[in-house]
Amino acid sequence: MVTQITKGIKISVSTSFEGTFFKNYKMHFAFGYEITIENQSKDSVQLTSRHWDIFDSLNHTEVVDGEGVIGKKPVIKPGESYTYNSGCLLASPMGAMKGYFNMINFTNTKKFRVFVPTFKLNAPFAIN
Question: Which of the residues 32, 72, 79, 109 has an alpha carbon 20 to 30 A from that of 25?
Answer without folding.
Answer: 32
